[in-house]
Design brief:
Layout: H1 18-36, H2 40-51, H3 69-81, H4 83-91, H5 105-119, H6 126-140, H7 145-160
Helix pairs in contact: 1-2, 1-3, 1-5, 2-3, 3-5, 4-5, 5-6, 5-7, 6-7
Length: 167
């Protein structure tokens, strides 16, 4: 991984998976908010109006044709309102000299989204959250980022939802 944002290597496939689509859209919206300094509510409105839904186009245009809008909204708002706490959780699971600001901005948005979902309750199960975000990571990145994300996601899940891993 490098200090420089590389952008998306390829687009995630979410055909028939609206919850995955909502997570992809949330990562894209959080990335846009982070990079452009736009308020989360402004980006939410833009995505709901123009980038989500059957008339939105396809991934090649940065759109998400199939997404669960309530989940999308919940994740983006959750990350926006709990950002400092989520970054503290995330920072606690980064190794060596890695810091949240040093992460690739897409990877940062992905890990913040996962941290929100893992800290917001017990549903979906932690392993489902990890699998969903790993599928998305493999869609966005072709290098070492998915492996890095897997280690961080696993550590966060085991910390935030320890009871699920004691079974």
């Amino acid at each position: 991984m490098s200090d420089t944002p590389k952008g998306a290597a390829k687009k995630p496939v979410v055909a028939g998976r609206p919850r995955t689509g909502s997570r992809v859209a949330a990562i894209q919206a959080l990335f846009q908010s982070d990079i452009n300094g736009e308020a989360a509510e402004t980006v939410l409105d833009q995505f709901i109006r123009y980038r989500i839904g059957p008339d939105a186009g396809g991934f090649e245009d940065g759109r998400v044709p199939l997404a669960d809008v309530p989940l999308f909204t919940k994740v983006v708002r959750g990350v926006a309102t709990q950002g400092e706490a989520l970054d503290a959780i995330l920072q606690g699971h980064l190794q060596g000299d890695w810091t949240v600001p040093r992460l690739d901005p897409v990877l940062r948005a992905l890990l913040r989204s996962a941290a929100y979902e893992l800290s917001a309750g017990t549903e979906p199960p932690a392993r489902v959250v990890i699998n969903e975000y790993m599928d998305i990571a493999h869609g966005f990145f072709s290098g070492e980022e998915p492996r890095f994300a897997n280690g961080v996601l696993d550590a966060m899940a085991r910390s935030l939802r320890a009871a699920e891993f004691q079974k």
